[in-house]
Amino acid sequence: MINIEQLHKRFGKNQVLKGVDLEITKKGVFAILGPNGSGKTTLIKTILGMVIPDKGKLLVGGIPINKNWKYRDQIDYLPQIANFPANLTVQELIEMIKDLRNHPGEDKKLIALFKLEPFLSKKLSNLSGGTKQKVNLVLTLMFDSPIIILDEPTSGLDPIALLHLKALIKEEKAKGKIILITSHIMSFVEEMADEIVFLLEGKVYFKGSIEALKTQTQESNFEHAIANLLTFDHA
Ligand SMILES: Nc1ncnc2c1ncn2[C@@H]1O[C@H](COP(=O)(O)OP(=O)(O)OP(=O)(O)O)[C@@H](O)[C@H]1O
């Protein structure tokens, strides 16, 4: 459960979040969408406690996050850009993250799924972008936390890996988890999301199902419905 009330965040003169209200009380996949720079990553990082808001309330699992950092244990997070020491091998990194999270982690199944065995002894600096992303997905999904946050999870993935990712997300959703995803790939969002949370001008401009979005915008095509949100009243 995530409750956000009147969240404000400014970087210098740039007021990014201008009163975000968002309640996520049911399980499912929630796509956080919005144009470049609309504050999607900032909102995610605020939920994770990595960005401190200037104003507003933020509760995870009913507990204000500034009073209890332990809540982060409940969240598995895939960052948009993961910066790990380049001279670590994949295996060392996996062990390091298990140690840091103080949790055994189910990495074997995911390593096999993404066919990462040949890369385990390779240094991160020697991996391709897509292989790095597969490793990052293992690091994120090997724990079994009730909330999963994926920032641009499809980035660099080949079609087979993308199919695996979609199946994994569906599996995690079936376990009753809350899954927040940002993505600029609308076909991926349309296939995966139960609800759209659309950020515009520092606020939640639309929250609801894809069907509701299509009805509101009078567009039968999802991509056009999103484009309509961007242009309608805002051209
Ligand atoms: N640490 C920071 N310091 C200064 N400005 C920042 C910082 N983090 C984000 N910003 C600014 O906040 C705004 C929102 O950035 P954010 O990364 O949250 O957007 P986004 O919606 O995730 O964008 P994208 O779709 O391009 O990934 C941008 O103008 C960005 O430059």
Description:
- The protein starts with a strand and ends with a helix.
- 34% of the residues lie in helices and 26% in strands.
- It has a six-stranded mixed β-sheet with strand order 6-7-8-3-9-10, sandwiched between helices. Strands 2-1-4-5 form a four-stranded antiparallel β-sheet, with helices on one face.
- It has a single domain, classed as Rossmann fold (3-Layer(aba) Sandwich), CATH 3.40.50.
- The protein has 235 residues and is of the alpha/beta class.
- The site of adenosine-5'-triphosphate has 11 residues, from strand 2 and helix 1.
- Keywords: ATP-binding, Nucleotide-binding, Transport.
- It comes from Ulvibacter litoralis.
- InterPro entries: AAA+_ATPase (IPR003593), ABC_transporter-like_ATP-bd (IPR003439), ABC_Transporter_VariousFunc (IPR051782), P-loop_NTPase (IPR027417).
